Amino acid sequence: MPTIDIDKTLAVLTEDRRNLLHQLAELGADENGELTGDMDYSDAFADAGATTAERTETMGIVDNLKNRLDKIDAAINRLDEGTFGVCTQCGKDIGRDRIEYRPTSSKCFDCKTSSV
User: Fold this and answer.
1) Running DSSP on this structure, what letter comes out for residue 2?
2) Angle at Cα 36 formed by Cα 69 and Cα 50, nearest 5°?
3) For residue 99, how many other CB atoms are within 10 A of its CB?
4) Is the pLDDT of residue 90 over 80?
5) Which of 10, 33, 50, 108 is deepest in the core (most CB within 10 A)?
6) DSSP character at residue 36
């Protein structure tokens, strides 16, 4: 595993997680990405088509946030398990620069680019 500051990395991941949960809550979604109630679209959305379009857009944003949250949770789990910084595909070190740039990385550069 590359030499990284585990405490700093955990703090970054935890702060990112907190921000994502806040964004999900602002959109009316819970930690699982489920919409938690009726969405208030105000009187500006007079027709059903506009309301449906807005709801679809919101659900897309929620899905994106949930995906990012899942990656953060997986990275935190790898920290807890002692496998953080190790490629989940080939088992080699991911590399310090890559981990510092994107702490949610689960694959080394070679494996990530070969799977694209």
Assistant:
1) -
2) 100
3) 19
4) yes
5) 108
6) -
Q: Long-range contact list for 44-50, CB < 8 A, 24+ apart?
A: none
Domains and CATH numbers, the chain: 6-30+45-114 (1.20.120.910)
Could you tell me which residues come within 8 angstroms of residue 96 by beta carbon, excluding any fewer than 6 positions away?
2, 3, 4, 85
The two tokens of residue 34 are 């489920």
Residues with Cβ within 8 Å of residue 45, at least 6 apart in sequence: 51, 54
> Read out DSSP for 73-108?
HHHHHHHHHT-TTB-TTT-SB--HHHHHH-TT--S-
Other beta carbons less than 10 A from residue 98's beta carbon? 18
Query: Rounded to a whole number, what is the distance in angstroms from the first to the last CA of the chain?
Result: 24
For residue range 48-76, list pLDDT tens digits in order: 777 778 888 889 999 999 999 999 999 99
Angstrom distance (rounded) from CA 53 to CA 50: 5
